[in-house]
Design a protein that fits this description.
The complex is a heterodimer of chains A (387) and B (159). Chain A is of the alpha/beta class. In chain A, 42% of the residues lie in helices and 13% in strands. Chain A has 14 helices and 12 strands. In chain A, helix 6 crosses helix 7 and helix 6 packs across helix 10. The chains are: A alpha/beta (387), B alpha+beta (159).
């Protein structure tokens, strides 16, 4: 077979995820301690697991409706109204997906025509650009800067809007920077979008994980914004349910109904067991979430201080579970830093450059690990930086 | 605040006060003041070490001895409990609800040691009606710490 001519040009041109690369190196070495993983170290709350077991005992293993069980969609509607103050109809404005990732894919593919531009704040999670490219669109990075708290500014947004702009991705609270957009930050963005025909894909997967004063605000809650916003959220981060693969999209019916078609053909429905258990997560696990948030917050403050102690400047993150220190004073590139750190001190972290060119000069350190684990890894990083 | 501080100290009482302060989001002086007050008030009674006895000495034995006791008219269980506390061999003395009255924890270098200690020193105390000795065979978890061979149960990135 001539695979080169067999395979799609677009798929061949995609670069594999730069996060995965460091996992794979770490997996081949003994005694590596990792601060690289982007998922909670907590187990899914027991009540949720018990719900899943009960549903399996009862033999509830058939497909659900394409958009998810009505009970789950109703629970999502109630939860969303409480958390971000926006109401969505469980009937035709909520779609349950296989993780937030599927929802992102659906939203981009439902919106993008050939040549359309999608604005993507960077550094950011790795999936928006490749999905845009596969949909025939053109990803346009909006570089966020440490001096602005890695927030998207109205000026930055305005300068990149063209007559081809179709959508803006808003990935806040942000992976990898930990930046959070406040209501006033978002009002400035909304002001730029008002009167345009640009959609917003608001990836709010870390919405429950904010620390300090600034709680998460959804752009969909601002005046006249709801009509253009696809809110994406899920169970992985807030409820420590990564392996259950469950997320959701919230959007006005004209957008959601198109996303639903794609989901019908490609996925059918999100996993039934996960859906049945997820109702318990939304209705019965507020204490578990609060406990996890409290624990992350302690670790976050510890990481920022330990990095400051070793002389690495680090933006104080307001959300998610990463710190994103600036490593330029070591004279190394992000990738050199990470390769040498893993070889010399056996600690795995992820180069900032994996999250877009503007992540160069930074590394992402996850604090979804125990205090003991963080303490040991940070000690080794300090030895590495000081030598 | 004290609740969170104590939780962190229970996890590792050697944590640097500076790190405790940053985790709790308060000045270091507040942490040291609070700890000093907890010590003064007798809430913190000491700082000890968590030992996996099996790894230290495979023959060492830890026993829990349940005592049934006739409470004394003048001071109830306190008189006998105080007398038990006086033995350096005894690590812990607790008044219990349920079937036994006093629970004594002690360590010895062998089964014989413990058995002789109980028959010579505990069973003979006035007011002690019966003793029942239970030997700890294996510790799976103590003070929140799991005592496995393999403490790397993190499957993330490996499944």
């Amino acid at each position: 077979m001539n695979y080169d001519s067999l395979l799609s040009d677009k798929i061949k041109s995609l670069k594999p995820s730069g996060i995965r690369k460091f996992f794979d190196i770490a997996a081949t070495m003994d005694d590596v301690i990792s601060l690289s993983v982007g998922e909670p170290d907590f187990k899914t709350p027991w009540r949720v697991r018990r719900s899943a077991i009960t549903s399996l005992e009862k033999g509830r293993t058939s497909y659900t409706s394409n958009s998810g069980t009505l009970a789950l969609r109703e629970a999502i509607a109630t939860y969303t109204a409480k958390q971000i103050g926006v109401t969505y109809s469980p009937v035709d404005e909520i779609l349950v997906t296989v993780g937030g990732s599927e929802a992102i894919d659906l939203a981009i593919r439902a919106l993008v025509n050939l040549g359309d531009e999608v604005l993507i704040p960077e550094p950011c999670f790795v999936c928006y650009s490749p999905i845009t490219e596969m949909a025939g669109g053109v990803p346009v990075p909006l570089v966020t800067r440490e001096e602005n708290g890695f927030k998207l500014t109205a000026e930055n947004l305005k300068s990149k809007i063209t007559d081809k702009t179709k959508a803006l991705v808003l990935p806040f609270p942000n992976n990898p920077t930990g930046a959070v957009m406040t209501e006033s930050d978002l009002l400035a963005i909304a002001e730029v979008l008002k009167g345009t025909n640009i959609a917003v894909i608001s990836d709010e997967i870390y919405s429950e994980l904010t620390y300090g004063g600034d709680k998460h605000v959804s752009i969909a809650s601002l005046p006249n914004m709801r009509e253009r916003v696809v809110v994406i959220n899920g169970f992985s981060k807030a409820f420590a349910m990564t392996g259950w693969r469950l997320g959701y999209a919230l959007a006005p019916k004209p957008i959601l109904s198109q996303m639903l078609k794609l989901h019908q053909f490609a996925i059918m429905c999100a996993p039934t067991t996960s859906q049945l258990a997820a109702v318990t997560a939304l209705t019965d696990c507020a204490d578990d979430v609060a406990r996890m948030v409290d624990e992350y917050d302690m670790r976050r403050r510890l990481c920022v201080q330990l990095l400051a102690d070793m002389g690495l400047p680090c933006f104080t993150p307001g959300g998610a579970f990463y710190v994103f220190p600036n490593i330029t004073k070591t004279g190394l590139t992000s990738e050199e830093f990470c390769v040498r750190l893993i070889n010399e001190k056996k600690v795995a972290v992820v180069p900032g450059s994996a999250f877009g060119a503007s992540g160069e000069g930074y590394v992402r350190i996850s604090y979804a690990y125990s205090l003991k684990h963080i303490g040991e890894a940070m000690k080794r990083i300090a030895e590495f930086v000081n030598q | 605040m004290n609740e969170k501080l104590i939780k962190l100290l229970r996890q590792d009482s050697r944590t640097d006060p500076r790190e405790l302060a940053s985790m709790l989001g308060v000045p270091e002086s507040e942490v040291t003041d609070r700890i000093a007050k907890l010590e003064r008030d007798g809430v913190i009674r000491g700082y000890t070490v968590l030992i996996d006895e099996e790894r230290l000495d495979r023959n060492a034995v830890t026993a829990q001895i349940e005592l049934k006791v006739t409470p004394q008219a003048e001071n109830g269980y306190d008189g006998i409990a105080e007398r038990l506390c006086g033995f350096p061999e005894i690590a812990g003395v607790q008044l219990m609800s349920g079937n036994c009255d006093l629970l004594v924890t002690m360590r010895g270098s062998s089964f014989r040691d413990i058995a002789f200690f109980v028959s010579e020193n505990l069973a003979t105390i006035d007011g002690v009606m019966s003793t029942r000795t239970k030997i700890i065979l294996r510790r799976y978890k103590e003070e929140g710490v799991v005592f496995g061979d393999d403490d790397d149960t993190d499957e993330r990135g490996k499944l």
